[in-house]
Amino acid sequence: MELRKNGRITFTDLSKKLGLSVASIKNRVDKLERLGAIKGYSALVEPAFLEEYLQALIELELLADDPRAEMVLQEIGKLENVLGIYKKTGEFQVMIRANFRNMDELKSFLRLLSQRYLRKNLRRWRVTIILDVIKDNGVQISKGSQRR
């Protein structure tokens, strides 16, 4: 939990907070990294400081039984603007979260999706523009749900 709150905390500080040795902390973090439980470390940056003023959620309705769907989602995930891709329930099976500098860049992104994937892999999409972020702290897991 402490590492999720502050990804920059030192092993020494973490060991003091948890009452464990530095070696124990390091071994545990190394193990979590090897297992893939810790996928990496990143900073939560206000998009306005990056000159990326427009954040959008783009929902995708995939064509039924498309054997290339996973590959297409991996390709889309490599696009520069894409922050995350999420499979979900409902009419639209996939949600993309992406940042854009302006509306023109969003339109270019949608044109690219249309040219590459529409009617081949995608039936349609729906775009929602985020007006304001109230809270965005990454993944938060309650103490009782931790795996050992």
From TrEMBL:
The identity of this protein, by name, is Transcriptional regulator
Organism the protein comes from? Thermococcus litoralis (strain ATCC 51850 / DSM 5473 / JCM 8560 / NS-C)
For this protein, the record's Pfam families field holds:
AsnC_trans_reg (PF01037), HTH_24 (PF13412)
Entry GO terms, CC: cytosol
| GO BP term, example | response to amino acid
- The domain of life is Archaea
Q: Which UniProt keywords apply?
A: DNA-binding, Transcription, Transcription regulation
The record's section on PROSITE patterns has: HTH_ASNC_1, HTH_ASNC_2
Alphabetized PANTHER family for the sequence: LEUCINE-RESPONSIVE REGULATORY PROTEIN (PTHR30154), TRANSCRIPTIONAL REGULATOR, ASNC FAMILY (PTHR30154:SF50)
Keyword check for Nucleotide-binding, yes or no: no
- Lineage summary: Archaea, Methanobacteriati, Methanobacteriota, Thermococci, Thermococcales
Q: Which residues form the HTH asnC-type domain?
A: 1-58
Please give the InterPro entries that the UniProt record associates with this protein: AsnC-type_HTH_dom, Dimeric_a/b-barrel, Tscrpt_reg_AsnC-like, Tscrpt_reg_AsnC/Lrp_C, Tscrpt_reg_HTH_AsnC-type_CS, WH-like_DNA-bd_sf, WH_DNA-bd_sf
Q: Which GO terms describe its molecular function?
A: sequence-specific DNA binding
